[in-house]
Amino acid sequence: MSFNDYPLGDLEADGASAGKGGAGSGTVLPNAAGKAATGGASAGSSATGGSSSEGGANDVTPTETNLLLVDDFQDTDAEILESQGRSGAWYVANDGRGVQTPRAGVPLMPADLLPARGESTRGAHTFGGPFSTWGALVGTSLASNGDVGVPYDLSGYEGLKVWVRSGSTAPNAAKKVRVNVLTPATMVGGGCTVCADHFGVDIPLTTQWLQVQVPLASLTQVGYGRPMLTSPNLAQALGIEFVFAVNVSFDLWLDDIELY
What we know:
Blueprint: E1 26-28, E2 69-71, E3 90-94, E4 100-101, E5 110-117, E6 120-128, E7 136-141, E8 144-145, E9 148-149, E10 159-166, E11 176-182, E12 199-204, E13 210-215, E14 239-244, E15 250-259
Parallel strand pairs: 1-13
Antiparallel strand pairs: 2-15, 3-7, 4-6, 5-6, 6-15, 7-14, 8-9, 10-13, 10-15, 11-12, 11-14
């Protein structure tokens, strides 16, 4: 499902990129106090990128018995894994002023990783841009009541881990993607007068697979929302989104998204 914060574009996208990426390691974003969360490694060097990926020897895909796993994309549908009360489906949205694959309004289905990243054979893939108004995104709700998204409590978790990779070496290709956590206070109808300034953080993109740990304490607003808030209400999380800003092209691969 998608949310009303963003007008959906419906332009068809065409074309694809090709090439081969190198193996990656991990990185940890600092939390709000400037202190890194534990458990990360330094980022690996970049390799020539394309719409394919290559996993390292230590890349092990969590199984569905991992209760913290949001999605490993190993199935053939757009649904996240149902665990600990989570449910939802991946969606695509953009401002309609560019091209994106899949196009806005179409579910984000798993795509084959060629070659596989370790034991992982599928991931999520979107590419396109540039956009000129607010940009483009993919996202998912975290809980639902039928077709309606409902709040999910993230307050007991420390953060989010995700494997990411850029499949493009174009000069204007995005070098980062913003991860947002949506809450009612930053949604239309939730009390904001200038909405959609969700709490989030930028994570780096390279042509290697990279596992990034995002402490929830590191999430901040961009600064245009009104009113500005001191912190997100993580007990009322509605979903997560991966957002690209204006004037960049992007070729994003996602895999093994989990809480910690």
